[in-house]
């Protein structure tokens, strides 16, 4: 089992892995692809630096995808908020026409009406007209509505949510949509993207989900900030020998708590010992960002509360009262020597 860190600047690594390790899962055209950001579904590259929008035919310089995403956001809100309500892998073969309920095939320019009860027509067209564009597994698929990106079928009456692993009873798609809306704040089909580093992953429920693997049993889990307790619960139930008794009782799982200690109603920063009044994660992150230049989880082990690790390369605490004291102590020692 190989795990990958998702970075918008290195999507080519994911593609390279598929080409080298799983070539049977890609079409010949997909193997030769060189553009991997989701925004390229809406643009056609002409030359080395000009991209033409498939929706309005306007040309843009394509030196970086931020220009393309800005165009979609400003000029074509439907590109982000009114997507074709089909599975992601089907949507990649079609472009929704501006201000209409029609889609055009990206391979032959045939036009189709977008009807919820007849989404199978989009799949049927690909199977019959462009079979080389689909994998064998995709050709046999029978679920086409967008919600099935988030569920696995358990039986005829139950589906398992990929995000929280809850079994949801359903007689129609509305039951599954209600679960996504109420529990995960997902209101519609999401863009075909990995995490956009310029946006806040934790405030955007509609970005693609991240999958992680347990190092002890290879079970897979979906990362969602509101349900990090699921990862802890798995360790407690399946691998209790890997945790200390204190870790089993822990109830704070977000990365910020590596840098704070909660005592009663008081929260103390482990780096500067400042007390904070608010328990909101946003306030803790703000403190770490402004005071210590820490913008996300550290790849190293958690903070040892019994020792000061101020020489950590990722911590910038210049101007900190404790650092000034440490510098004075060092100078005093040097004079004595």
TrEMBL record:
PROSITE patterns per record: ZF_BED
Residue ranges annotated for the BED-type domain, each copy included: 40-83
GO MF term (any one): zinc ion binding
InterPro entries referenced in this protein's UniProt entry, alphabetically: Znf_BED, Znf_C2H2_sf, Znf_C2H2_type
Coiled-coil residues: none
Key words, A-Z: Metal-binding, Zinc, Zinc-finger
Classification via Pfam families: zf-BED
Protein name: BED-type domain-containing protein
Lineage: Eukaryota, Metazoa, Ecdysozoa, Arthropoda, Hexapoda
């Amino acid at each position: 089992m190989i795990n990958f860190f998702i970075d918008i600047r290195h999507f080519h690594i994911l593609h390279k892995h598929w080409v080298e390790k799983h070539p049977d899962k890609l079409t010949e055209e997909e193997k030769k692809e060189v553009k991997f950001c989701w925004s390229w579904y809406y643009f056609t590259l002409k030359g080395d630096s000009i991209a033409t929008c498939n929706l309005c035919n306007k040309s843009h310089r394509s030196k970086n995808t931020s220009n393309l995403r800005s165009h979609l956001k400003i000029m074509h809100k439907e590109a982000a908020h009114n997507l074709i309500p089909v599975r992601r892998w089907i949507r990649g073969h079609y472009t929704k026409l501006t201000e209409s309920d029609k889609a055009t095939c990206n391979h032959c320019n045939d036009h189709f009406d977008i009807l919820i009860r007849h989404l199978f027509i989009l799949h049927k067209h690909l199977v019959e007209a462009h079979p080389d564009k689909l994998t064998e597994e995709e050709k046999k698929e029978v679920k086409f509505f967008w919600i099935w990106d988030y569920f696995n079928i358990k039986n005829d009456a139950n589906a398992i949510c990929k995000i929280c692993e809850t079994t949801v009873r359903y007689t129609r798609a509305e039951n599954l949509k209600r679960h996504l809306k109420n529990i995960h704040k997902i209101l519609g089909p999401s863009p075909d993207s990995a995490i956009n580093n310029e946006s806040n992953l934790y405030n955007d429920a509609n970005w693609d989900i991240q999958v992680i693997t347990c190092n002890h049993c290879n079970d897979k889990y979906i990362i969602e900030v509101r349900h990090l307790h699921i990862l802890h619960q798995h360790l407690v139930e399946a691998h209790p020998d890997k945790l200390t008794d204190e870790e089993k009782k822990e109830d704070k799982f977000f990365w910020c708590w590596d840098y704070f200690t909660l005592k009663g109603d008081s929260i103390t920063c482990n780096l500067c010992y400042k007390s904070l009044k608010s328990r909101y994660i946003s306030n803790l992150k703000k403190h770490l960002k402004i005071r210590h230049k820490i913008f996300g989880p550290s790849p190293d082990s958690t903070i040892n509360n019994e020792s000061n690790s101020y020489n950590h390369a990722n911590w910038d605490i210049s101007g900190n009262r404790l650092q000034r004291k440490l510098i004075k102590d060092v100078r005093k020692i040097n004079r004595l020597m």
